[in-house]
Structure of Phosphate transport system permease protein PstA:
Amino acid sequence: MNGSNTLMKKRKRPLDTVLLAAVYISASLSVILLLGIIGYVFVKGIGTVNWKFLTSVTSALNQTAGIAGNLVNTLYIIVITLLIATPLGVGSAIYLNEYAKPGRIVSIIEFTTETLSGIPSIIFGLFGMVFFGESLGLGYSLLTGSFTLTIMVLPLITRNTQEALRTVPDSYRSGALGMGSTKWHMIRTILLPSSMSGIVTGIILALGRIVGESAALLFTAGSDYKLPRFGSDFAANVERLFTKTTESGGTLTIELYLQMQKGQYETAFGIGCVLVVIVLILNLLTKLAAKKLRPV
């Protein structure tokens, strides 16, 4: 046996070196592109971002440019969409992976899920406008936009959760069941915590699509940027928060698009800076939550 080609001292082939170099170059380019885009957006727009810009609304009479209303609308869309899509997506993945018997029905469901993820967002917007807006009578509202985005991000969460569940060794399942655990208890206490990183990845991808979506929301959520008006009555304020979901509301991406159309590039880049920061903060919070839920 050739001693130079053992596990302890394996011979290096030229092709391995070339492929390893290609991997490092690709990874470096990805990081450089990300830093370049973020840096360019911040250089162009950071001068526009200030406290007044974040806490006021655009007004022609007061000659102010603010995104407070759009910021609130974006948070509404994120919260409502994830509250609906996350349990649906994770629940669907658990059923497909742990309960459903492999066969034609499961294959059809998985094919449908993959097809949904490839449909252009403008088609989702048209469907949401016709079905949620007109057929269900919700009109242009945050609820219509959230329901539409739920359909869009559901495949991301479902497929990522499925792949995460498949990475959990079968010995975990058989061991837990052999010790007398019920199937649901095994899923809740072993499978979900063990696959939490994959589930979080799906949620992060969904967050990115929710925050960055504009085409579908133009047809469903509208472009209004007014802030809710609160008073001294707590019950009335709570009612106002829920009533806001039935009203039109433009997100940050919608406002960015409208500002670009008007030629207000500084304001548009300022909104871009805020969007990048929001995505980074949400990703960090999601990672921290997953770390807390992950078993030691």
DSSP finds 13 helices and two strands in the chain. Residues 130 and 136 are 9 Å apart (CA to CA). The first helix runs from residue 14 to 45. The beta strands are 57-59, 64-67.
